[in-house]
Amino acid sequence: MHAAIDQTELEKRAQSLVEAAKKAGADASDAVASTGVSLSVSVREGKVEETERSEGNGLVLRVFVGGSVASVSANVLDDPDALAQKAVAMAQVTPPEPYAALADADLLLTKFPDLELLDDSEITAGALSDRALAAEAAGLAVEGVSKSGGAGASWSLGGVTLVTSHGFVGSYLSSRHGLSMTAVAGEGTGMERDYDFDYRMFLSDMADPEEIGRRAGERTVRRLNPVKLTTRTANVLYESRAAKSLLGHFAGAVNGASIARKTSFLKEKMGEQIFSKGISIVDDPFKARGAATRPFDGEGTGSEVLKMIDDGVLQHWFLDGATARELRLEPNGRAHRSGAGTSPGATNLTLSPGDKTPEALMKELGEGLFITDLIGHGVNGVTGDYSRGAAGFWFENGEPVQAVSEITIAGNLNDVFARLVPASDLDARYSTASPSIAIEGMTLAGS
68-74 and 47-65 as β-strands: parallel, antiparallel, unpaired? Predict the structure, then answer.
């Protein structure tokens, strides 16, 4: 147990709410108690601009009365009985929700996997300042960088406890460390900026501050003097940072809530070939030190590693209890607590890498657009139509030759998924992890 968070106290708070809900007449209930502490430092031009520390607590009680559901939240647990009575009274005048219920008792976890979630490293504001200042100095040292857009370092620790009226009690703590630096190059209307960052559960896994600053500076200088492209059809290579967004669009399309609402372009595609053969997308809630690793889901049930895409074929939806009931399927442990209830979603979602480097794929493509930055959210979840602002580099003969900006890339995600080719440079640090991705024949709208 971390000194900053008392898990036993969290369990007592949640348990008292569940017991109060029973006395107030609820048929069933669950309660989430959460607490967190965070520390962050921002610097600019060699000086600390802001140091911020915050602490917070949260309590959410959800009650089931007949076929109706209601929830109440509080920051302080002064009177659990009053809070429970309020929730029950709300449920009694709330329209029924036919699919809402606690998870089936036989799905609840009774033993929790041993996961690496908590880093006990001592964190001080001074240490965070040193990291941010070192990153900024390294960025400013890159030739061509004119000034700093700022650097920041952060640390946070969070604790969550879930208690249900049918016997589940579980809690866990997790830590987060972050560092970022933004560099600026050029002057006036020719000014460009870019950034680099790292975000990890364990401090020992973080990139060196100097490396983060240097990469931010080099990325920024490369963007100077961009040109606009004329409208055309071209091959595209997404840098891994930008490629994660395509995986995010896939995650949204296979979310059980979207399937139940019939708002996904993949709603009729279960068991079909969505990607080319050999493509694999895996969702792993137990990934070592993963950003979304957790011992149990938002309903207290166990999860398993899911091959969402196996050899290009769609195998699963992300399901919590409610969406599984609506779709007449079995839940698969993908419930996330979402305010008053749960919603389905991914954990650590990874597109498996291919066997060719981005440089090799660029040479095979010959010429096209290397995308390093995306703007906007122009995706139609119902049709799969895709349109995003982009910036990056035009490449010829497999080599970048010119920075470009103010481009729109467009297509349909059905076609994008079917044609994408993953590179070998998987960036596995984040909850949505992808290598660089090559796609032939996308529409580029320019001048």
Answer: antiparallel
Per-residue model confidence (pLDDT) at position 188: 85
Q: Yes or no: say if 109 and 301 are a contact pair by the CB < 8 Å rule.
A: yes
Q: What is the distance between the alpha carbons of residues 102 and 94, in angstroms, rounded to a whole number?
A: 18
pLDDT tens profile 344-394:
999 999 999 999 999 999 999 999 999 999 998 889 999 999 999 999 999
Q: Per the structure block, which two tokens stand in for 244?
A: 């994660």
Quick one: three-class SS letters along 134-178?
A: HHHHHHHCCCCEEEEEEEEEEEEEEEEEEEECCCCEEEEEEEEEE
**Tally: H helices and E strands in the chain:** 9, 19
Mean pLDDT of the chain: 95
Domains of the chain: 7-219 (3.30.2290.10), 226-246+353-445 (no CATH), 253-282+295-347 (no CATH)
Instruction: Quote the CA–CA distance of 264 and 258 in Å, as a whole number.
Output: 6
- Is the pLDDT assigned to residue 78 strictly greater than 70? yes
Pairing state of beta strands 349-351 and 432-433?
A: parallel
DSSP designation for 274: -
Q: How far is CA 184 from the centre of its chain?
A: 27
Beta bridge partners of 140: none
- The 10 Å Cβ neighbour count of residue 49 is 13
pLDDT recorded at residue 4? 57
